[in-house]
Design goal:
Number of strands: 8
Distance between the termini: 87 Å
Radius of gyration: 27 Å
Strand order of the largest sheet: 4-6-5-8-3-7
Shape: globular
Structural class: alpha/beta
Helix content: 10-25%
Strand content: 25-35%
Number of helices: 3
Largest sheet: 6 strands, mixed
């Protein structure tokens, strides 16, 4: 068998190889047509289950996100668990997860403040990871901005 190159400009077929298929190529050939098998039969790559599409939150709590119950079970999360959200530009934040029955499995509901902290918009993809125990804060510093000082 010979392989032919079909050129678009000259409408003629140029022989590339006038000998038989190599052994590794003939093993991949379809026995009925003796043509190489298409690469479409390769196994499909599964997307990671922790990558979710951002959607608008229904509550105004800045520390709570919503996931579907099926997605929480898939990620081994429970109601009230702490999760680490990773957004764009290497930004991340920690939130508390709650279940939402009216939400699609591939979506996550984030508040506007959380989206701003992650530098993401509605429709962007973020990743959700289980976070271990988060320690309570010991103190809070409220410092005025430099331009407000006289």
């Amino acid at each position: 068998t010979s392989l032919l190159l079909d050129t678009a400009f000259t409408q003629e077929k140029i022989p590339l190889i006038s000998v038989g298929f190599p052994a590794w190529l003939s093993a991949m050939a379809d026995p009925a047509t003796n043509a190489p098998v298409a690469a479409a039969e390769a196994p499909k790559k599964k997307r990671s289950p922790n990558r979710l599409v951002v959607e608008e939150a229904l509550n105004d709590d800045n520390s709570v996100i919503s996931l579907s119950q099926a997605k929480m079970e898939e990620l081994n999360l429970f109601r009230g668990d702490n999760v680490l959200l990773k957004g764009k530009k290497r930004k991340d934040t920690v939130c508390i997860v709650l279940a939402d029955d009216n939400l699609d499995d591939s979506k996550i509901r984030l508040n506007k403040v959380v989206r701003k902290n992650l530098r993401c918009r509605l429709g962007d993809i973020i990743s959700v990871h289980a976070c271990g125990d988060v320690q309570y804060g010991k103190r809070v510093h409220v410092i005025p901005l430099h331009d407000t000082l006289e």
